[in-house]
Design brief:
256 residues, alpha+beta, D-amino Acid Aminotransferase, Chain A, domain 1, 2 domains, seven-stranded antiparallel beta sheet, five-stranded antiparallel beta sheet, 6 helices, 14 strands, binds uridine-5'-diphosphate
Length: 256
């Protein structure tokens, strides 16, 4: 595996050519970035946790009929996925006002939305991932109308499923970001859920304390980032055996 070909290095992951045609290896790094890369840190063990958490979520989604790129986890930091042509959009689903939406509309974080909403952002770091409408997406040929419909429908199904899954663990799913890709098999094109779903890409609040168990701990300098991710893994029942030593076990993080 030493001489494998590097395909792409992103902020939190590296993609290598997979062992068979049509496959890719996704390597989870410990790096965390925010605010267009202006903030950067290495959080020991984050990659291992996200690999496990994303595996668990992708497998669960697959079991309820959501088509995903996930094939299998290879080791602590890597998973094998189906190669796909990534649609250059970040699809954000929101249940509660937070983050950019709170800022944009001036509504306090934590205010519930009357209904879940799906937003699209054009994936372009140099432009700061701008919010775009269906009109922009079709005019720019980033995706076809039927692909937008499919991403909307899948995203809402994923939201229903994940909201219930996290609710059962005492966690509110506030919002999250998805990415989709086109997969071509036997000349048939299918839209697959791609990338990862982890506390890096979701807002997860403890239902009792409202404590943040996600990347906002890093963005907002709240501390205890890896401990929060460990807590999510623990509640999902998947604490990896060999996570970098934290012999005290997972600790609940506090805001001060
Ligand atoms: N998100 C993400 N990657 C991005 C932007 C957002 O994973 O490049 C996630 C983020 O973690 C949150 C949701 O998408 O769960 C909505 O983020 P928002 O638009 O509020 O932006 P933020 O406040 O995170 O900059």
């Amino acid at each position: 595996m030493k001489n494998r070909k590097l395909l792409y290095e992103g902020k939190a992951k590296i993609l290598y050519e997979g062992p068979e045609p049509g496959t890719i290896i996704q390597f989870f790094k410990d790096d965390a970035t925010a605010f267009d890369n202006k903030k950067h840190a290495t959080l020991e063990g984050k990659g291992v946790l996200n690999n496990r958490i994303s595996e668990h979520i992708m497998v669960s989604l697959d079991s309820v009929g959501i088509p995903t790129h996930f094939i299998k986890r290879l080791n602590m930091r890597e998973q094998l996925v189906k190669k796909c042509e990534i649609i250059p959009l970040e699809v954000v689903v929101r249940n509660i006002f937070a983050g950019q939406l709170s800022k944009r509309l001036g509504i306090e974080e934590g205010t519930p939305l009357r209904r879940s909403i799906v937003e699209f952002y054009y994936k372009d770091d140099a432009l700061g991932d701008p919010l775009v409408s269906e009109e922009h997406i079709t005019a720019m040929n980033w995706a076809m109308p039927h692909e937008i419909d499919e991403m909307m429908a899948l995203s809402l199904r994923i939201n229903d499923f994940l909201s219930g899954l996290f609710r059962g663990l005492g966690i509110t799913l506030v919002d999250f970001k998805l990415e989709y890709g086109r997969n071509f098999e036997n000349d048939i094109m299918r839209i697959l859920l791609a990338d990862e779903i982890s506390p890096d890409s979701c807002r997860l609040w403890d239902m009792k304390t409202n404590e943040k168990l996600d990347k906002d701990r890093f963005r907002r300098d709240l501390g205890g980032v890896t401990e929060a991710y460990q807590e999510v893994a623990r509640r999902l029942g998947i604490m990896p055996e060999n996570t970098p030593a934290n012999h005290a076990g997972p600790v609940l993080v506090s805001d001060n």
